[in-house]
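Below is a filled-in request sheet from our internal design queue. Each sheet records the structural input a requester submitted and the sequence that came back. We keep these sheets so that new team members can see what a complete request looks like end to end.

REQUESTER: design group, bay 2
PRIORITY: normal
MODE: inverse folding
CHAIN LENGTH: 408
BACKBONE (tokenized):
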């Protein structure tokens, strides 16, 4: 749960300058949309051999399609292979100015390599589509934007990571009420039709997450499970996403698809009223839990910055409630967002993180930490320095991995 995910203007300037001076991919040509290095090499080779076909010329500069197998295994088995993950936040999900609009530098292969080398085998790539699509009824996604999203997905697929690809920050127009619902359903269907077709040949390391924290912003029950009519709208939108992807056939018939609750919340009102497909063992729940909120988020007067173990039960109770509600009924769960502010308390955050991922691991829930790139100002969830591929909070990162791999 986050109120906003932006960086200050001053930090924008600092990060952009760092990107220019950095050796961590700042000069990597593959970070530009449509500039995949494999495609460039293929084009060069073709030119040296005396030309290319019209089809090859049309594909020049397009991202590589990395084909893979979608195994006929259950969602429970697939989710078990995801150990611990990292969110590429405030990047492709910026609502203004494209990938670098909120101050983070363009993503590179080197960044993803560094995250993977630390022990994260899963990455969530939040993407905002509204700024990059046309009007109704087609809602056509800009080709250049889709290319760039595919290019970033490829960075992680090349590292053999699991990738969660979603729709993010769409709550400005995706309002779950009767007035907006028909437009909501048409847009969600169009977006996921195009995404499904673009990534149709990718293997089961690519996972689709239909909605991110769908809710009515500013409403009285925004973070408390919403109202019954709002939850019904969210259930309908999950179903539209599910039906659209499955209808494209091929590998998408068995691709892992993630449903969510109202606002992605784990409160009882939200998780008691969710859409779950019938007769399909290739879906899971994606939920968010910044637990306990007084430690992880901290602006509140009741916040605390020390972790002495006295609040461990808040994590344990949340995790085991999800186990009882979903996992015991054959539905796997991914905690696709959680994290803690930087309050200059890294030892405490590391202790909290190990308890969090360790407890979740005991019941088979992989966790994906939120990182928005902001370390000094604003919502300081960053742990990875994207400018030089180092770690702002390495103890925190190591604790996340340690907890998630305990007992292996």
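RETURNED SEQUENCE:
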């Amino acid at each position: 749960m986050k109120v906003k995910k932006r960086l200050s203007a001053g930090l924008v300037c600092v990060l952009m300058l760092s990107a220019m001076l950095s050796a961590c991919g700042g000069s990597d040509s593959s970070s530009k949309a449509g500039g995949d290095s494999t495609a460039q090499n293929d084009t060069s080779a073709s030119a040296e051999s005396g030309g290319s076909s019209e089809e090859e010329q049309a594909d020049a500069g397009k991202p590589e399609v990395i084909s893979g197998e979608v195994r006929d295994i259950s969602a429970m088995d697939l989710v078990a292979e995801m150990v611990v993950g990292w969110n590429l936040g405030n990047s492709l999900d910026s609502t203004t100015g494209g990938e670098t609009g909120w101050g983070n530098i363009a993503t590179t292969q080197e960044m993803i390599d560094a995250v993977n080398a630390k022990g994260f085998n899963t990455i969530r790539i939040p993407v905002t589509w509204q700024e990059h699509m046309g009007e109704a009824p087609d809602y056509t996604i800009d080709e250049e934007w889709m290319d760039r999203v595919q290019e970033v997905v490829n960075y992680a697929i090349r590292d053999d990571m699991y990738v969660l690809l979603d729709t993010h920050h769409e709550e400005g127009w995706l309002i779950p009420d009767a007035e907006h619902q028909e437009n909501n359903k048409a847009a969600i269907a169009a977006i996921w039709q195009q995404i499904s077709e673009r990534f149709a040949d990718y293997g089961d390391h690519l996972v689709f997450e239909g909605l991110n924290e769908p809710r009515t912003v500013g409403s009285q029950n925004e973070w408390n499970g919403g109202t019954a009519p709002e939850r019904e709208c969210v259930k309908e939108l999950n179903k539209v996403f599910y039906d659209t992807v499955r209808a494209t056939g091929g590998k998408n018939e068995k691709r892992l698809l993630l449903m969510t609750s109202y606002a992605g919340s784990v409160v009882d009102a939200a998780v008691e009223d969710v859409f779950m497909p019938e007769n399909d063992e290739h879906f899971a729940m994606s939920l968010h839990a910044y637990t306990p909120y007084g430690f992880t988020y901290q602006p509140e007067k009741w916040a605390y910055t020390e972790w002495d173990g006295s609040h461990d039960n808040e994590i344990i109770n949340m995790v085991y409630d999800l186990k009882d509600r979903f996992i015991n009924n054959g539905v796997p769960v991914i905690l696709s967002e959680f994290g803690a502010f930087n309050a200059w308390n890294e030892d405490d955050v590391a202790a909290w993180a190990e308890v969090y991922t360790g407890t979740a691991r005991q019941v088979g829930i992989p966790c994906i930490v939120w990182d928005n790139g902001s370390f000094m100002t604003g919502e300081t969830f960053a742990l990875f320095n994207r400018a030089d591929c180092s770690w702002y909070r390495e103890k925190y990162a190591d604790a996340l991995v340690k907890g998630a791999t305990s007992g292996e």
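SHEET NOTES:
- Residues 9-27+70-405 form a domain with the TIM Barrel fold (CATH 3.20.20.80).
- The longest helix spans residues 228-247.
FILED BY: M.R.
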